[in-house]
Write a structure and sequence with these properties.
elongated
């Protein structure tokens, strides 16, 4: 007595069902132009983050460095050679941490902004 579904059809059915519900992710390669535009965008946000206490600087700076490495070696080199921004990037790259001086300065600036407001 046959159940009605053969074993080969059953495995094929489950394979097709799995493909149906599997998320389809389209891989779009990043061109250097797109990477350069994003690098400048995140660099602008990082610079604004220096001025505004509520906006973080380091995450945007790290994104700017990552995108500049894929978009422009000149911008990437400039970021690492910058007297202030380069130190943050080098500290993050070597120690995976923000320097104590930067943390103290951030807390000090937040405190001043709370007093002023």
């Amino acid at each position: 007595m046959s159940v009605g579904i053969e074993k080969t059809n059953s495995s094929q059915f489950w394979a097709e069902l799995q493909l149906l519900f599997e998320p389809q992710i389209a891989y779009v390669p990043m061109t250097p132009l797109i990477a350069l535009i994003l690098a400048y965008l995140f660099l602008a946000l990082a610079i604004v983050g220096v001025l505004l206490p509520g906006l973080p600087t380091v995450p945007f700076l790290l994104l700017a460095a990552w995108f500049s490495a894929r978009g422009s070696s000149r911008l990437h080199r400039w970021l690492y050679e910058h007297p202030h921004l380069g130190k943050l990037l080098i500290d993050w790259e070597t120690q995976r941490a923000i320097s104590r001086c930067s943390k103290v300065l951030a807390v000090f600036m937040l405190s001043i902004s709370w007093v002023v407001l």
